[in-house]
Amino acid sequence: FCNGHKCPPLGLESLKVKDYQLRASSYKRRGLGPHRGRLNIQSGVEDGDIYDGAWCALHRDKKQWLEVDAQRLTRFTGVILQGRSSIWSWNVVHTFKVQFSNDTLLWKSSMNGSEEAIFEGNQDTETPVLALFHTPTVARYIRINPQSWYQNGTQGDICLRAEVLGCVLPDPSNVHEWQAEPSESKDKLDFRHHNYKEMRKLMKVVHEECPNITRIYSIGKSYKDLKLYVMEISDNPGKHKLGEPEFRYVAGMHGNEVLGRELLLNLMQYICQEYKRGNQRILRLVRDTRIHLLPSMNPDGYEMAFKKGSELAGWALGRYSYEGIDMNSNFADLNSGMWTAIELETDRSKLINHYFPIPEQYTSEDAFVASETRAVISWMQSIPFVLGANLHGGELVVTYPYDMTRDWAPREHTPTPDESFFRWLATAYASTNQVMSNPDRRPCHNKNFLRYNNIINGADWHNVPGSMNDFSYLHTNCFEVTVELSCDKFPHVSELPIEWENNRESLLVYMEQVHRGIKGVIRDKDTGAGIANAIIKVEDIDHHIRSVADGDYWRLLNPGEYRVTVTAEGYLPNSRSCHVMYDFYPTICDFYLTMMPKEKLKDILRKRGKLPEDVQLRLRQRRLRKLRVTTKAINQRRAAAAKRAKRV
User: How big is the CA angle at 475 (ends 471 and 479), to the nearest 5 degrees?
Assistant: First the structure.
């Protein structure tokens, strides 16, 4: 990194620079202290708490400064400045000077020829502005010294968020310094940011290296026609194996939260390499699990952020789809319908608690549903996923459903019937993650998740209607959590090996949780054929799941003794006890169902005039078909418009 201006950030944003390395001439209050002067730091909702969104000087004069101690001699090449993050206040620094020192007593200014250099700062509070020095300077300390700022009459405060670019020089007195901090990974992986073309190329390389256990497929296209590629890893790619659970990781739903994408690209390389090496753990994972990795759900947004680069993309550029849709709240809201029904229905037996159909209005061509969201919903339906996680960035915490509060409260603990298992899942990731589980880490932005052991019920953090996790739980058999991977949404390339080391174990441990609980096959007692869409009910947990096409099912459960009942259309119900152990493997619980006797069927037919049909299932299938039809129509229209535009 040490040629010209290619020096990496020191790490104000990534928290590599610790609070004690930051000092200031003065500050208004603790919440606006020098430790808050970090690029992209986010303020809390209330102005005036300890989590404000910048360093703000107490005085309004040209003698104020923010100082960074790099702790070692460093070749400083530039700084990046940003205004204050706040809902209520608008503060930016327009111009500034920079000074350097080796001892904090004697300071030298950054020069432009024979003059003190004056650098351009910000015009708005969000866009990061890069200022490169005319000549890089070697020193230990650097000061940013504002010269002009938004005055707001006389009320304008001097506030800023910053990042410093610099190459740390080798310390001649310390021969063993390379052992002091691990900045590399033992794994030989392709640690860099991959744009769309490079991502596709890397996936192709992994497939060529491990053709017997990988398959690349696309689940649809983004608004700008980029394919949503998935890497499947399994010892029998392309086919669902009876009894083998399906797992998925989804990254890049917000295009500017890029770490998940790189981790999934690392993960596919790692699994391929370790499989070939004969690593027992990986062999078992590939043999017993069908894994699907979608590294980029929002490739359009990613390309926008990628073009700006790691430090200059700001907090939101590339978050949304090309049409401006936030995919994290773009899935069908099934919670509201469920809760309304619970309030209105007096007969509890008529309530449904799983496989909720998509609402009618959501399936129309006019519904504001991103093509990427449509593609993922279709994918969720075509593969019987059991467990998944979606990878985000900008915080360090694992959140589990529900993500939506019941009465639209801004935040409120809103548990699912599977609360205890979701807490187990979230803990499995958080407790094995090297950064999250570090008790000495400082909070990223404005909430201290260490107090919650780094896991939280999504709705208890903030209300998100139409989230992927809630939709997955209520519409399919699949349990899903959100992993917020890092304080910094777009870590510098030099951080990627460390981030892989931080997350490798968590990514593997979480996948292994798909083998917790019970699984089995539901069969017809007379013919032995598998029964699809049988309902699996666990006593005292008000959330059922269903068997899939060949009659196999998986029910994620914590260790314990469970009474399980299976029902299916035209069959008599069957119950048994299933005991879940602490092992890696699930408990096998098969069921054989007896068809209803003809007399009983005739009786039902006499009373009703028809067999009891699974109305819920039919409606769910019909709505999904409609969603697919409207998606096809929208895509055809878009393709035709693109062709016309090309001709013009």
Answer: 70
C-alpha closest to that of 547 among 565, 530, 566, 534? 534
What are the tokens at 610? 């028809």
Residue of 230, 234, 260, 229 whose CA lies nearest to 245:
234
The pair phi, psi for residue 366, each rounded to 5°, is -85, -10
Q: Please state, in angstroms and rounded to a whole number, the distance separating the CA atoms of residues 203 and 214.
A: 10
- Interatomic CA distance for residues 82 and 65, integer angstroms: 15
- Annotation marks residue 484 as catalytic: yes
Q: Which of 484, 501, 569, 613 is catalytic?
A: 484
Number of helices followed by number of strands (H, E) in the chain: 13, 26
Q: Enumerate the β-bridge partners of residue 593.
A: 524
3-state secondary structure string, 405-469? CCCCCCCCCCCCCCHHHHHHHHHHHHCCCCCCCCCCCCCCCCCCHHHHCCEEEHHHHCCCCCCHH
**CA gap 70, 442 in Å, rounded:** 18
Secondary structure of residue 322 in the 3-state scheme: coil
- Say if CB 37 and CB 160 are below 8 A apart: yes
- Measured CA to CA in angstroms, residue 330 lies from 89, 110, 321, 324 at distances of 30, 49, 11, 11
CA 68 from chain centre, in angstroms, equals 31
> In the structure encoding, which two tokens stand for residue 255, read together?
């295009």
Tokens at 647, concatenated: 């001709």
**Is beta strand 535-538 parallel, antiparallel or unpaired with respect to 66-82?**
unpaired
What integer pLDDT is reported at residue 308 of this predicted model?
87
DSSP assignment of 120-183, as one string?
Answer: E--SSSSS-EEEEEEEEEEEEEEEEEEEEE--TTTT---EEEEEEEEEEPP-TT-TTHHHHS--
Report how far apart the first and last C-alpha atoms of the chain are (Å, whole number): 45
Angstrom distance (rounded) from CA 124 to CA 579: 60
Q: How many CB atoms lie within 10 A of CB 5?
A: 12
Block means of pLDDT (10 residues each) for the chain, 648 residues, are: 67 94 95 95 76 93 96 96 91 96 95 94 94 95 96 86 95 57 79 96 98 97 95 96 97 96 98 97 97 97 90 86 92 94 82 91 89 95 96 96 92 96 97 93 90 94 95 97 95 94 97 97 95 96 96 97 95 96 90 86 66 76 89 84 79
Q: Would you give the DSSP letter of residue 589?
A: -
Distance, CA of 519 to CA of 555 (rounded, Å): 6
| Gap between the Cα atoms of 609 and 611, Å rounded | 7
3-state secondary structure of 565: strand
| Cα–Cα distance, 322 to 222 (Å, whole number) | 8
Residue 645: CB atoms within 10 A of its CB come to 8
